[in-house]
Design brief:
The chain is mainly beta and 175 residues long. The protein has one helix at 14-26, and strands spanning 10-12, 33-41, 53-57, 60-67, 71-76, 95-98, 112-120, 132-138, 141-147, 152-156, 163-168. The chain has one helix and eleven strands; from the N terminus they run βαββββββββββ. The strands form two sheets. Strands 1-5-4-3-2-6 form a six-stranded antiparallel sheet.
């Protein structure tokens, strides 16, 4: 994707994601969301949801990216959002990092209270069964980053009832 430092490792399923990233996500508890970055096209400002979403919690960056129907990559402090996105000759629009998003902006400056993994478990057959989303809970509300069918989606508020919530232990941050 031409994103400096982005080398995704995609995982499938609750246990794989929880084992690999549960402790790191839980350790974010008590930190403030100090910024975020998403990729938008320069020409029209549209969000390019295929690219990772980078959330900065007091200097610890978590990078969330969904792919295909059930794959999730979570990275840590590897993407340099200050570096221009390159090697996009195959695409007609110009991507650039942006810290503008009306869904995420209200959470900047808020302390993270809890992180949970959300597992999609619908009551009837669904191709997305077992897909994992990551939920971030603040005093001001919550959002989750889910699989939007081969791209990321950002949803505010309580998750759909077909998500099974798996909270991760979040201790308070040592001073």
């Amino acid at each position: 994707m031409g994103i400096s430092g982005f080398e995704p490792t995609f995982l499938v399923g609750l246990e794989a994601v929880r084992e690999e990233h549960g402790p790191g996500l839980a350790a974010l508890g008590g930190r403030r969301l100090t910024g975020f970055a998403i990729v938008r096209f320069v020409e029209d400002g549209d969000w390019f949801a295929d690219c990772p979403i980078v959330l900065d919690f007091d200097g610890v960056r978590v990078e969330v990216c969904h792919w295909k129907l059930d794959e999730l990559s979570i990275g840590w402090n590897s993407i340099d959002t200050a570096t221009e996105i390159s090697d996009w000759e195959w695409f007609e629009l110009t991507p650039a990092w942006s810290s503008a998003d009306e869904r995420l902006e209200p959470f900047v400056g808020q302390e993270l209270r809890e992180v949970a993994l959300l597992e999609w478990r619908p009551s009837s057959y669904d191709l997305a069964d077992g897909t994992i989303a990551v939920e971030f809970v603040f005093d001001a509300g919550r959002f989750h980053i889910a699989n939007g069918l081969d791209e990321n989606s950002i949803d505010l508020g309580d998750a759909h009832p077909d998500f099974v919530r798996h909270p991760l232990s979040c201790g308070t941050r040592p001073d």
